Amino acid sequence: xxxxxxxxxxxxxxxxxxxxxDIDLDIAEGEVVCVIGPSGSGKSTLIRCINRLEAFxxxxxxxxxxxxxxxxxxxxxxxxxxxxxxxxxxxxxHMTVLRNVMLAPMRVRGxxxxxxxxxxxxxxxxxxILEQAEKFxxxxxxxxxxRVAIARALAMEPKVLLFDEPTSSLDPExxxxxxxxxxxxxxxxxxxxxxxxxxxFARQVADRVIFMDGGRILEAxxxxxxxxxxxxxxxxxxxxxxxxx
Amino acid sequence: xxxxxTFFNVGVLLDSLPQLLWGxxxxxxxxxxxxxxxxxxxxxxxxxxxxxxxxxxxxxRIYVDIFRSIPLLVLLIIVYYALPFVxxxxxPFLSAVTALSLVSAAYTAEIxxxxxxxxxxxxxxxxxxxxxxNRHTMxxxxxxxxxxxxxxxxxxxxxxxxxxxxxxxxxxxxxxLKQATQAQALSANPTPLIGAAIIYIIxxxxxxxxxxxxxxxxxxxxx
Lengths: 245, 223
Ligand SMILES: Nc1ncnc2c1ncn2[C@@H]1O[C@H](COP(=O)(O)OP(=O)(O)OP(=O)(O)O)[C@@H](O)[C@H]1O
Ligand SMILES: [Mg+2]
Prior knowledge:
The structure holds two protein chains of two kinds. Chain A is an alpha/beta fold. Chain A is built from nine helices and ten strands. Chain A has a six-stranded mixed sheet, sandwiched between helices. In chain A, strands 2-1-4-5 form a four-stranded antiparallel sheet, covered by helices on one side. In chain A, α3 packs across α4, α4 packs across α5 and α5 packs parallel to α6. Chain A is globular and about 55 Å long. In chain A, about 45% of the residues are buried. Chain B has one domain: MetI-like fold. In chain B, α3 crosses α5 and α4 crosses α5. The longest helix of chain B is centred in the N-terminal third of the chain and has 42 residues. Chain B is elongated. The termini of chain B are far apart. Chains A and B meet through α2, β6 and α3 of A and α6 and α7 of B. Bound molecules: adenosine-5'-triphosphate (ATP) and magnesium ion. The site of magnesium ion has 4 residues of chain A, from α1.
């Protein structure tokens, strides 16, 4: 099967400092891929290149659903197909939760307000937060805000969802509710690429786990391969450090 | 008593009042037109500076810096007395509005830029990730948030524009100050000038207190 996301020779540098070295990666439709690795290894940069929040080397190619990710008119099209959930939620603070979820379908897809609202309420119900629809983001807990952010991304019916450490800025007691929503999503066949430090989630939910270090994919495989019999010293060292703290 | 008769001569004041009020109308016409043009121009400059190619960004910055450096009176005199030498002959009204708008746009651009830059990067990124166009990002996400930040300095700028309309009297515009100086010459008494000063104060005092209130409101951090 053709890959939904195809990354070839991805290079990214900030000035003279190379952050990603020749990354090749294919992600199939419906696949759930977790990206793990030490801080500064380039995980965020990798997924931010996929919707081109970071510009990358012009020699590199990324395609999503067959469309090349490049500056220009097609970029908004790609972005509409790629949902993203951020560590810091980035909800629009001046709009109600409902408007947050309705905005992009109306503006990008031309959905009518009535249809967008039905859709938004349905999604808010799915992430268990419908009763907060009329509130503003600032009135919600972190876990609730992140669930709204997931609903907002889903409202565009994206082909793939990117998550950049979606639980890292949450109080510990709220991590579970967000991971639950993500676990349910993964069960519905949504393609997901998740940067996470939640090893339990990665082991349980991922079809494939990618270990990054120093701007390279050092090792990739099933959760069992990566967590139970890692091949690389760096992977072993990283897992020992995160699992034993 | 002599002093009161000189500066607050009720008879002279009443005589000159219609003339002063006509002047006020002209002042408001110049002021409001310049405020609207300055706001539109400033917003355009601020957004263009955000999205335009690097070369144009530099040009825009030079524009903003020049028009914030040049004394308004000098600019006004150039527009009115110098431009005719290259065939551009503007009426006193258009000269005043042009000079005021050019300068106001420069200040407004800086105010909007600061307001837009105060919005966290995450708001731009979330908008981009959803596929919103630059236009919708601005209209739906960034400007509604920036507006809270820019309202106090924008109001301040409006006050300055209204005050600076008085300079239009040097290009023979019959604004409030010009009418007052004419009435003063006619009645050989400075009361009309005092009357004009009082009208300026009555016009601008409320705006000044509103700015102070807004600044207190926004610095408290509530919305
Ligand atoms: N805007 C930037 N300018 C310069 N360097 C940057 C920038 N963004 C990231 N970097 C550098 O790129 C490297 C990779 O960063 P990245 O954020 O992708 O790492 P990460 O794996 O997501 O780390 P973390 O787990 O801490 O989020 C780091 O060394 C970081 O300092
Ligand atoms: Mg990161």
